[in-house]
């Protein structure tokens, strides 16, 4: 017969011993209470057995000392039942915190060869998750309110300025909030797939991306402005800016090009590293091909095609401050970035030359959906003019 452990009086009469006193919760599930001395608070243990899989698990639940003695049994039973439910759904018995899940996700990215992405994700976790209260919560005890509190706190965090020399001065935008939530959502989804948690109820609704956060890129630089910007930039950066004004690649993809990516004989540029993820080739017009041929002249195949003055490859940290200085010198909008050159080039491509959307998507390395989302207003203007030409 099971010993009663559900009342304070019953537990006070128990003799101290190493073996817990057990009571049945349901088939294969037991709640135990261990009292090592007459003066100890006592601790609670859950025991699980699956006869079909010959699986046995035990888990310490703690002493629930923060609660009045009369409430400890019910709290321990609730915690045990939650753990039993997790195991019955195929969950893993080990304790994994949100922080540990994030670390597992970073290593998962590295195992896939995504080292750069892993570094960026790790930085976000260190900044916004690991040492926050959310990071210490065990996955099996994660609740929607925990995610809600974290998300609201993140939303009120000041955005890190692009120029790290300046102090934060603006509120975090919806698009920035979405970018910071995405890695955590992915880490939790991986934990779900691995069995560390058996439901996504805690984050499914609370971490939905904010709608209409990725608005159209509003900083447009016309041809005159782009020429002024290039004229004010250092010579090596001016070359990178010119390339971005000739081919609508992402700045990172352009900076990653090596001399071997350009085929002078065929006038083709092979894009092997881009957010889009797929290698593609672009056939260049004569003037543009001549520009890239000049950049690759006398260089080894693995040398940066668009190198800095010291011969090293460009990256966002290298071009950030010189670019900002050139923007100021050219008296252009302060919000202009290297990405604005890509946006401006795509805008001119659509507005002035009117290629089909598939061609624009292939040139820029993005989807038709993204072209429609960010540049659809230009396409609709062309459509309206085309319809107007049909009037009798």
Compact description:
The chain has 14 helices and seven strands. With 392 residues, it is of the alpha+beta class. It folds into three domains: 8-88, Double Stranded RNA Binding Domain (2-Layer Sandwich); 98-194; 223-388, hpI Integrase, Chain A.
Q: Please state the overall shape, judged from the principal axes of the Cα atoms.
A: elongated
Percent helix: 40-55%
Just give the CATH class of the largest domain. Mainly Alpha
Strand proportion, as a percent range, falls in: 5-15%
Total number of beta strands: 7
| Overall structural domain count | 3
The radius of gyration over CA amounts to: 30 Å
What name does the CATH topology of the largest domain carry?
hpI Integrase, Chain A
CATH homologous superfamily heading of the largest domain = Intergrase catalytic core
Q: Structural class given helices, strands, pairing? A: alpha+beta
The main β sheet shows up as: 4 strands, antiparallel
- Average pLDDT score: 84
Calculate the terminal CA-CA distance, rounded to whole Å: 96 Å
What attributes does this structure have?
3 domains, Double Stranded RNA Binding Domain, hpI Integrase, Chain A, 3-stranded antiparallel β-sheet, 392 residues, alpha+beta, 4-stranded antiparallel β-sheet
């Amino acid at each position: 017969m099971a010993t009663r452990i559900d009342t304070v009086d019953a537990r006070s009469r128990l003799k101290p011993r190493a073996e817990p006193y057990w009571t049945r919760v349901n088939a294969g599930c037991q709640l135990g209470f261990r009292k090592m001395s007459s003066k100890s608070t006592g601790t609670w243990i859950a025991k699980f057995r699956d006869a079909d899989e010959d699986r046995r698990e035990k888990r310490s639940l703690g002493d629930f000392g923060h609660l009045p003695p009369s409430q400890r049994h019910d709290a321990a039973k609730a915690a045990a039942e939650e753990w039993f439910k997790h195991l019955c759904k195929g969950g893993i018995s080990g304790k994994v915190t949100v922080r540990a899940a994030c670390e597992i996700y970073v290593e998962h990215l590295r195992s896939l060869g995504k080292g750069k992405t892993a570094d960026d994700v790790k930085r976000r976790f260190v900044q916004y998750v690991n040492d926050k209260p959310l990071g210490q919560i065990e996955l099996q005890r994660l609740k929607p309110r925990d995610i809600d509190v974290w998300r609201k706190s993140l939303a009120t965090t000041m955005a890190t300025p692009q120029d790290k020399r300046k102090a934060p001065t603006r509120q975090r935008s919806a698009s920035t909030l979405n970018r910071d939530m995405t890695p955590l959502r992915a880490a939790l989804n991986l934990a779900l797939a691995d069995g560390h948690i058996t439901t996504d109820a805690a984050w499914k609704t609370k971490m939905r991306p904010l709608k209409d956060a990725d608005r159209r890129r509003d900083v447009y630089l016309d041809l005159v402005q782009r020429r002024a910007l290039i004229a004010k930039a250092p010579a090596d950066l001016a070359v990178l800016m010119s390339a971005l004004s000739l081919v609508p690649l992402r700045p990172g993809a352009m900076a990653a090009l090596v001399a071997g990516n350009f085929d002078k004989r065929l006038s083709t540029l092979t894009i092997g590293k881009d957010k889009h993820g797929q290698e593609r080739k672009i056939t260049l017009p004569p003037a543009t091909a001549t520009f890239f041929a000049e950049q690759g002249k006398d260089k080894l195949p693995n040398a940066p095609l668009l190198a800095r003055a010291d011969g090293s490859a460009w990256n966002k940290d290298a071009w950030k401050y010189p670019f900002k200085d050139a923007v100021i010198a050219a008296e252009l909008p302060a919000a202009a970035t290297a990405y604005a050159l890509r946006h401006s080039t795509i805008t001119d491509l659509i507005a002035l030359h009117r290629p089909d959307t598939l061609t624009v998507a292939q040139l820029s390395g993005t989807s038709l959906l993204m072209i429609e989302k960010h540049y659809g207003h230009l396409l609709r203007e062309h459509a309206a003019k085309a319809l107007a030409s049909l009037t009798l």
